[in-house]
Amino acid sequence: MSDAPLNPYEPPQMADGALEEEGSAGESHEDVTPVLAGTASIYRLAAAILDEGVATLLFFVTAMPLTTVLKAAGLPFIAAAGVWLTYFFLTEWLLAATPGKLLLRLRVCTESGDRCTAQHIAVRTLWRILEVNPLICGLFPAGIAVNCTARHQRLGDIMAGTLVVRKSQLPRD
Questions:
Q1: For the chain, what are the domain ranges?
Q2: pLDDT for 15-62, tens place per residue?
Q3: Contact, 96 vs 136, CB < 8 A?
Q4: Short-list 114, 139, 118, CA closest to 128
């Protein structure tokens, strides 16, 4: 093994020959990556409520001062919505979790357990406009999807190929 620090978002690696057994010459074994399932629990709901509260507060704190600066109709709302979306995008991309998820030991990862790319997080974030928008239906569409899908994913997770899991589910994390 190398002295490089472990990356908790890389799938587990098997030592050379770790899967070989006596008398199995000629058989090929592939590395097996554990299948992750999302976490549909009170933790995910609590994290969502915390994060929506913070993001919505940022939305209004941003929108109010902009109404006097930007006179054109709709511009303050668009700028504030950008702040709301940026909160989720930046925290999930840089930290693999929003502050609410970090507090409750949840992480966003790919379906294979790897760390998400900016593209994964962008897809998740854009789907928030439809399914987690506090001005339309609140958390209901996302909550229904999380509770009705086999891997406990909201639509943004399905489209991005991501999961929200307990930190303890991730290999070496």
A1: 42-169
A2: 444 333 334 444 444 444 456 777 667 888 899 899 989 988 888 887
A3: no
A4: 139
- Tokens linked to 12: 């587990």
Given a contact cutoff of 8 angstroms between Cβ atoms, the answer to whether 96 and 115 are in contact is yes
152 Cβ partners below 8 Å, 6+ apart? 37, 38, 39, 40, 44, 146, 163, 164
pTM of the model: 0.71
Tens of pLDDT along 113-145?
Answer: 899 999 999 999 999 888 887 667 777 888 888
The answer to whether residues 106 and 44 touch, using CB atoms and an 8 Å cutoff, is yes
pLDDT at 9: 54
**What DSSP state is assigned to residue 44?**
H
Cα–Cα distance measured from residue 35 to residue 38, given in angstroms and rounded to the nearest whole number: 10
E strand intervals along 13-117? 106-110
Cα separations (Å) of 135 from 53, 71, 132? 12, 22, 9
Q: What is the DSSP string of 89-121?
A: HHHHHHHSS-HHHHHTTEEEEETTSPBPPHHHH
